From TrEMBL:
Record bears the keyword Transmembrane: yes
Name of this chain's protein: Sec-independent protein translocase protein TatA
Family statement: Belongs to the TatA/E family.
Region of interest called Disordered, as start-end residue ranges on this chain: 65-95
PANTHER family per record: SEC-INDEPENDENT PROTEIN TRANSLOCASE PROTEIN TATA, CHLOROPLASTIC
Length: 95
């Protein structure tokens, strides 16, 4: 059992020290409040993750819609001048 990088022996030591400091009457109350704090942190974390995923999906959908609406860019056709220049250049390089 490894929680937050703390093993079972370390957790037992922390429990014993807390028992000595706070006493047996106060310890369950502290445990409850700590549990509530951890639970609220987990809830906030999961809410943040779901909001982040929702925003990422909206952005992705917007980009796909934009890509579908943009006209396809067709490269200009090669003109005779470009073809003749390429032919002249290649014949010059062969010499």
């Amino acid at each position: 059992m490894n929680v937050f990088g703390i093993g079972l022996p370390e957790m037992a030591l922390i429990f014993v020290v807390a028992l000595l400091i706070f006493g047996p009457k106060k310890l369950p109350e502290i445990g409850r409040s700590l549990g509530k704090a951890i639970r609220s942190f987990q809830d906030a974390s999961s809410e943040f993750q779901s909001e982040f995923k929702r925003e990422a999906e909206q952005i992705e959908q917007a980009m796909q819609t934009t890509a579908e609406l943009e006209p396809k860019q067709i490269p200009p056709a090669a003109t005779e001048e470009t073809v003749s220049t390429n032919t002249t250049t290649s014949s010059t390089q062969q010499s």
